[in-house]
Amino acid sequence: xxxxxxxxxxxxxxxxxxxxxxxxxxxxxxxxxxxxxxxxxxxxxxxxxxxxxxxxxxxxxxxxxxxxxxxxxxxxxxxxxxxxxxxxxxxxxxxxxxxxxxxxxxxxxxxxxxxxxxxxxxxxxxxxxxxxxxxxxxxxxxxxxxxxxxxxxxxxxxxxxxxxxxxxxxxxxxxxxxxxxxxxxxxx
Length: 188
Ligand SMILES: CC(C)(COP(=O)(O)OP(=O)(O)OC[C@H]1O[C@@H](n2cnc3c(N)ncnc32)[C@H](O)[C@@H]1OP(=O)(O)O)[C@@H](O)C(=O)NCCC(=O)NCCS
Known about the structure:
By secondary structure, the protein is of the alpha+beta class. The chain has one domain (5-180): 3-Layer(aba) Sandwich (Aminopeptidase). The protein contains four helices and seven strands; from the N terminus they run βααβββαβαββ. It has helices at residues 14-28, 41-52, 121-131, 147-155, and strands spanning 5-10, 58-63, 69-77, 104-112, 137-143, 159-164, 174-180. A seven-stranded mixed beta sheet has the order 1-2-3-4-5-7-6, with helices on both faces. Helix 1 packs antiparallel against helix 2 (41-52). The N and C termini lie far apart (36 Å). The relative contact order is 0.16. It binds coenzyme A. Coenzyme A is lined by residues 28, 110-112, 117-118, 122-123, 142, 146, 148-149, 152.
């Protein structure tokens, strides 16, 4: 399997990208989309519309040598009044979850098609997305019933902050994690 090319997108590209992102989602989550209402394609589409409407939404898509999408990652900065932390169940000092609008980048989705698992592609997409960010840190949620994914993120440098369950119907219990971001590209 040869290497992939990575393309960067922003919210202007979102409407055009949406069908492709949902197609990859349906394949990457094929094992759970029928049984887990939180993981349904419709819920994913709602999430994608919400996230990609944010002006600072960013996305990377990996393509193989035939131009086929092999996976993607996207996210956006948390706003100052971030709903993200309202589902936090672990007590932490208030300054840990104080947002400014430019402090924390939320990595909302990362997935790769099955043939591209265990090839380093997921890590490359993750690194490419975060390398463009100017926030001081990133956050993500990982389902607590997926300990191997949690361990994978730990191996990539993420630290667990606590338990979080978004205030949304059927939401599972997540670990919320943080990753410090180096000042790679300077202020925009
Ligand atoms: C998460 C992901 C991007 C990581 O890709 P990768 O770096 O190539 O790593 P792997 O695919 O080998 O995953 C690491 C381990 O986690 C497990 N895993 C991955 N996704 C999982 C999921 N959604 N549910 C349960 N276990 C999962 C894998 O089976 C693997 O376990 P193994 O080593 O026993 O085979 C990729 O597995 C994926 O696209 N998964 C589906 C989407 C997903 O869960 N995204 C993460 C949301 S926080």
